[in-house]
């Protein structure tokens, strides 16, 4: 007998597989939308957290760059025997003579002096405002700006005049120069108000008077208590290494040197607890979303027994049925993931825009979000797809 | 000299379902090319079971099923699926059409597991719709068609891959008598054009209009008309 050879079995094309997966979703669009919702919310939360985090980090980096990382400070510390050791009077000039140092200045704490709005207020109520003697070159060294009025000059530095830090001015209720404040029993005229300083917040809460007037009228001992210095950026490390020895050659161990921008840089690494909370919620939402997808797929397989039977009759292999339902689950979950990523990006754009932060698209976050939604879809769809593939065609087609 | 094997050869086939129901008992039946066979019997007599065995949708408990000379027992899922895709066209009592696809798209599904690109499938599907006289309904969805038209779309889907045999299980069972008549007429026309067809029916009237009738009762063949 002339027996014909067996027909060849054909592979499903990728386009057909995707088409048949999406076709299944088209059958019940509302159900598809609802079951993709959990995934969408989870991915949206994660992308938004990553996007907003990236934007705030970019803002911080910009800020650090604009403040400059070349500012160093020197403060007196304790010597090896635990004794407080003041900086020598000549320390500022010595530091200024280091080669790569661009400028050096200092403030000195005026012991026991307080500043008040009027003489009627209790002198013990300092509001945390410190009276500091400031050298005339302090403002340029800090890179500070005035929000109103003028900085100390050789002339005004000798008179009872004061420049207030931004916070100090607010606490004292002083919003324009020309007002008088009461410092250690004497009236001082407010000469100017400083704009807020990010690297040196201690200046924000200070009342700055001239070095000379502090010595002549407030009993200031003339020792600098904080030296500020700017160095050539490339030589900051080298300058840092010699600062202690230069400022106090007799007792270098009794000198503290620090770099204020380090504190801001540390913030970059700091964990955002609010962000991790949202990430956690997003993960829970993803898990719930995955369970939702699995549930939808199980119901779908039960409802579509006839379709499975028909497809087997039309020549579908077990594996092709399995792949169809797996593709459907992945498509469902990936659509949720894409919608969630779009939502998360929109939230980032709105939030960063409102804060005036630079916009950084979290591309890795988006890729990870969509990628994880695909993985979740595959995991959620595996069991229902296996069941669909194993359903015997005769059983699938029986109406009973 | 060579002769082609029977399209379907049931050789002493028995089918027992789990639970002890013996749906077919020691049944032998051959269907050769170009035959139009009616398998007739009352409800519960084992007709659908027989169609599923002939269509390789199920395996017999005992006995041998051969399709164009190939013993079904020796074939794996992949080979059986290819046999169904290429050699066997199914028509069921329910049409099993996809509601949100048009007539031509539904027919094209008959070629979905053939490895043909989509455009080629749709082209073949349009030709098959013309053969069943529904070329003008190509872009209508099932809900816009009458019951008889829907069953003709399902027949076009069974034909589109040019199978060696079309197996129809009660194709008129869900139709009124007039629509049923058009479907029976269509089966006769397809047979005249050279299609091998086996139709299951419990309607003796319909069976009588076919060349060959096989009567089945309680899982056994009680009378077989000549080929
Ligand atoms: N999947 C099954 N499991 C158990 N019994 C079945 C199954 N399918 C059919 N039967 C039984 O086998 C017998 C024949 O059924 P069937 O082949 O559907 O008959 P027909 O199509 O002639 O009405 C019936 O008694 C039926 O209840
Ligand atoms: Mg039946």
TrEMBL record, chain A:
Membrane topology: Multi-pass membrane protein
Organism superkingdom: Bacteria
Keywords: Cell membrane, Membrane, Transmembrane, Transmembrane helix
Transmembrane feature ranges: 32-55, 277-301, 321-354, 366-386
Subcellular location field: Cell membrane
Pfam families per record: FtsX, MacB_PCD
Name assigned to this protein: ABC transporter permease
From TrEMBL, chain B:
Name used for this protein in its record: Peptide ABC transporter ATP-binding protein
Keyword list, A-Z: ATP-binding, Nucleotide-binding, Transport
SMART domains linked to this entry: AAA (SM00382)
Residue ranges the record marks as coiled coil: none
Positions of the ABC transporter domain: 8-227
Cross-referenced Pfam families: ABC_tran
SUPFAM superfamilies associated with the record: P-loop containing nucleoside triphosphate hydrolases
GO molecular function, one term: ATP binding
InterPro entries from the UniProt entry: AAA+_ATPase (IPR003593), ABC_transporter-like_ATP-bd (IPR003439), ABC_transporter-like_CS (IPR017871), ABC_transpr_LolD-like (IPR015854), MacB-like_ATP-bd (IPR017911), P-loop_NTPase (IPR027417)
